[in-house]
Amino acid sequence: MLDIIINIAKKEFIDNIRNKWIIIITILFISLTLLASYAGSIYSEGWQDLGSTMSVMGGLVNFLITIIALILGYSAIIGEIEKGSMDSLLSLPAKRIEIILGKFFGLGIVLTFAILTGFGTAGIIIGFNVHNVNYVEYLIFIGATILVGLVFLSIGIFLSCLFRKRSTAMGSAILVFFLFTILWRFIVVALLFFINAFDIKNATLPDWYLALNFFNPINAYEILLSLNIPSLAMQQVEAITFGYTSFLNTTNVLIALILWLLTPLILACWVFKNKDI
Amino acid sequence: MDIIITYGLTKKFGDLTAVNNLSFNVKKGEIFGFLGPNGAGKTTTIKMLTTLLNPTSGTATIAGFDIIKQRDEVRKNIGVVFQEPALDVELTGKENLEYHARMYGLSRDKRKKRINDVLELVNLWDKRDVLVKNYSGGMKRRLEIARGLMHYPVVLFLDEPTLGLDAQTRRAIWAYIKKMNKEEGTTIFLTTHYMEEAEYLCNRVGIIDYGKLLVIDDISNLKNSVGKDVITLSCTDADRFVKILENEKWVEKIKRHEGLVTFGVEKGDEKIPEIIEIARKQDIKIKSISVRKPTLDDVFLSYTGRTIRDEEGQVSSKGRLSLRFRGGR
User: Phi and psi of B256, rounded to 5°?
Assistant: First the structure.
């Protein structure tokens, strides 16, 4: 089983090297990080340290990683079905679960490689130009970014299995992107005021509202960063104003992100197993 | 020895019966052709035999393994080349074969030797390190066939192996198919829209229409069933002339099609004056008449009452009918 998963993953990785995807994403990450460090602050000129760079990068990375991971994932299965090459793949002695896992690991390596190389290279360049670089915080930032990237890759692959047309899968991926990056904030705030649960007098948010952060992987990612990277905590308005409630801790947020990664993947395996090609 | 045996193989999609109670055998080492018009059920049959679709009822065995109960064993014993290209264009020819061989768990030494062998077989050794996206259509098809052979399959399924290729490349592919059948002893099960392809390659053919197997036999037997010679004529009052000819004992399997009357006879050349005389006596004018040896087209016409061309809505006026379907279920 492992041999087949590795074989499929390896082919996905080589494909993405040859079609220049990895190079494009990596260059994009290097450029944005360096740009954020050198020109990201309006208060000072020249290179900023990694903490400041991560603060500037924070919001940008959310959008970028989400869309890249969804693009990589949404066509993984339906793309092969529409091309007609899935029949050939299914005629090989590979189980459908092995195909899904091979695709996930292959594309996951592509994403991980691009994030590590892109942010890593930029981090080293910044390190040469500024003093007191906190590489541990930067590694946490990279690790969390990889994790949220894999979450959206997993969602993308699930959408790829769910629909019978590539265009529908793409549309649903765009919808997921807007839901989690933009619409979510409006929805939960509207919900909060609709239920009239915002206690202005005590300036506290209800637990259910804070718990909603678990249902959006981007929120979970942001909380994970601000809990573990002090320089980024300042970015979180809710954290400043209200402080995080006790259940929003690193362990729970990590569990939420891992569940976000595994659930779509398991659903993808189940849907694909029962799909008539 | 029978390498493929089907037992009442049936596939339904809702109310539509795509394949209806198919029972036939394919012998080890033969090239078997599966002919039928668009939507006849050829591709559905291949998909069931290659374990991609579950039959609604009935079953089949490939090399002794049941297609429902022993899917993994079946897959290890077959190679498949589908209509749609399934090569990875970002990989080289050699890398595509490597990938395929690894999926079948071939050891490193075996892989190396086998890749050399199959690339030599399809004459692509010189192009082994070229990215597939730079291959021509014919080269891609040859590589697909080579890939299908990588793991020493007992049976190779070819679904429209020369679809979309020019006549010259088609001929070259035929030569490779013959070669691998001869040199590797691989049983080949192919579907085709080209009647001349079936005639050139196959030992036996089965004709399928509306999901039902109409006939299965050696090509020579099928042709003889139509008659030693085939006469095609165009005349006035064709319906009346058909009725008159039907009463003649020497006329076999007479059909009217697109204003033409076609039937089989013994010694066609000698019968032409007699036919003209019958027509003259009945005051029927014969506009044209020709005699030729029967082809699979005539066999198809005699069993279905139409040519494959009718299904396609395409007319070829260069002597013979160009008999080709697109797609399939």
Answer: -105, 135
- Among A92, A97, A98, pick the best mutation site for testing chain B contact (most B Cβ within 10 A): A92
Out of A3, A19, A84, name the one closest to residue B86 (CB). Answer: A84
Which residues sit opposite B32 in a β-bridge?
B189, B204
Of A115, A144, A154, whose CA–CA distance to A220 is shortest? A144
Tokens of A139: 């590694």
- pLDDT tens-place string over residues B107-150: 999 999 999 988 988 889 999 999 999 999 889 989 998 898 88
* Cβ-based contacts of A98 with chain B (< 8 Å): none
Domain residue spans of chain A:
2-273
Nearest to B48 by CA among B211, B160, B180, B209: B211
The pTM assigned to this predicted structure is 0.80
One-letter amino acid of B72:
D
Q: How far is CA B175 from the centre of its chain?
A: 16
Which residue in A has a C-alpha nearest to residue B13's C-alpha? A276
Which 3 state secondary structure label does DSSP give B67?
coil
Cβ distance B94 to B127 under 8 Å? Answer: no
Evaluate whether B71 touches A95 at the Cβ level (below 8 Å): no
CB contact under 8 A, B82 and A87: yes
User: What ipTM was predicted for this assembly?
Assistant: 0.80
With CB atoms and an 8 Å threshold, state whether A93 touches B83. Answer: no
Please judge whether A18 and B90 are an interchain contact, meaning their C-beta atoms are less than 8 angstroms apart. yes
| C-alpha–C-alpha distance, residues B117 and B164, integer Å | 27
- The model's pLDDT over B197-239, given as tens digits with 9 standing for 90+, comes to 898 999 999 999 889 999 999 998 888 887 778 899 999 999 9
Q: Which residue is associated with the tokens 């399939």?
A: B328
